[in-house]
UniProtKB/TrEMBL annotation:
Domain (Response regulatory) ranges: 10-124
Pfam families: GerE, Response_reg
Modified residues (4-aspartylphosphate): 59
GO biological process: phosphorelay signal transduction system; regulation of DNA-templated transcription
Organism encoding this protein: Methylobacterium nonmethylotrophicum
Gene3D superfamilies: 3.40.50.2300, Winged helix-like DNA-binding domain superfamily/Winged helix DNA-binding domain
Protein name, as recorded: Response regulator transcription factor
GO molecular function terms listed in the Swiss-Prot or TrEMBL record: DNA binding
Boundaries of every HTH luxR-type domain copy: 140-205
Sorted UniProt keywords: DNA-binding, Phosphoprotein, Transcription, Transcription regulation, Two-component regulatory system
Length: 209
């Protein structure tokens, strides 16, 4: 299993079965994946951990908070790790609920080691994609903060589809001044085209009143 450069990913196992926790920990370590195991959702939540890359492998049926209920609460708790659910008593409605809630996979015990490794690979890839999007969005926000008030006005109107002449009329400026501001916006936002600038505006939630 290949891994990308950057912080090492961790597979978090939450299952009340100690034998299965040990078996899964050994499986993940055999492919050089860091792993941390917990006996319950409450133990996972009460244990400090870094916000590094990873995924959650949850048992559906556990004392206290079940895997499905825990999955439903994750976003509200600010935890965005992809989830793989496993159960010894799976049924179609349960698996549908899990997948609709965003689970990467729903495995019925006993499962093949390779099926679990494939699910973890997919989960870590999903987590990497989310983190990349978040990093890109933060970079856009930082770049947007460097724009002057006038440049933000031009950004807004340009991405709304107005021509330089129209923007000049709205802002009571010369067309050449608008072109200069537009150039500054493109440079500061590192946009290579108008289409890319429009996508940035959409990602930032910038739209005319």
């Amino acid at each position: 299993m290949s891994r990308r450069d950057g912080p090492a990913a961790t597979v978090f196992i939450v299952d009340d079965d100690s034998d299965l926790r040990d078996a899964l920990s050994g499986l993940f370590r055999s492919v050089d994946l860091a792993t941390t195991a917990y006996a319950s959702a409450a133990e996972f939540l009460s244990t400090p951990r870094s916000d590094g890359p990873g995924c959650l492998v949850l048992d559906v049926r556990m004392p206290g908070l079940s895997g499905l209920d825990f999955q439903a609460q994750l976003a509200g708790l600010g935890i965005h790790l992809p989830v793989i659910l496993m159960t010894g008593h799976g049924d179609i409605p349960m698996s549908v609920r899990a997948m609709k809630a965003g689970a990467v996979d729903f495995l019925t015990k006993p499962f093949r080691d390779q099926d679990m490794l494939d699910a973890v690979t997919a989960a870590l890839a999903r987590d990497a994609e989310r983190r990349s999007r978040d990093t890109g969005l933060q970079a856009m926000r930082t770049a947007y903060e460097t724009l002057t008030a006038r440049e933000r006005e031009v950004f807004l109107h340009v991405t709304a589809g107005l021509m330089n002449k129209q923007i000049a009329g709205l802002l009571d400026l010369s067309e050449i001044t608008i072109k200069i501001h537009r150039g500054h916006v493109m440079r500061k936002m590192e946009a290579r085209s108008l289409a890319e600038l429009v996508r940035m505006a959409q990602a930032l939630g910038i739209a005319p009143d």
